[in-house]
Amino acid sequence: MPSLEKNLDPKYKDLINDLYKDLSGQMKAMALGLLKDPYQAEEAVANTFVKIIDHIEKISKIPCPQRQAYCVSILKNETINILRREKNYQATENLDSYQEKSSLSQVEAQVIEELEKTSLREKIKDLDQEDKLLLIYKYQENMTYKEIGKILSISEEAAKKRGQRILKKLRDKYREEGQDER
Q1: Which of 15, 19, 47, 91 minimizes the number of CB atoms within 10 Å of its CB?
Q2: Where is pLDDT greater, at 32 or 64?
Q3: Measured distance CA(148)–CA(156) in Å, rounded
Q4: Cα separation, 182 vs 176, whole angstroms
């Protein structure tokens, strides 16, 4: 890949490295699950990153969660291309091709969901301890704001308001990340 690096704008190198670090393992697992051949899976991931590099300027303008989904959709297309080339995929809409597309969509959805969970965990790590505790009570322990208020020695309304502020902080972090063009 030295020829790609020579033509690549330096401001996109970090973004490409981050995408590779964040997505390559999950992409390999997804491709392997669909192709059942480690060499073809590697080929699909490699082709995907070549396309990502070719279109990095456009991809850099996509907000982060959508950026990851976009990259996964490139992998999906590369996987389908390999299946077609190997004649394991039929272009006609028969039951087998429907099942392949269906399982591909399920795997794609699982990968995207896992990426979103990872992104949310990272944002939650940045919160202070009291905010994390409130989130644990509310969403992990399924407690009401009234119960949370009693534990934290605040009113139900104060617990609810704090919960809203925490969610706003998380939404703001997503917005900041989405506008980050590196």
Answers
A1: 91
A2: 32
A3: 7
A4: 12
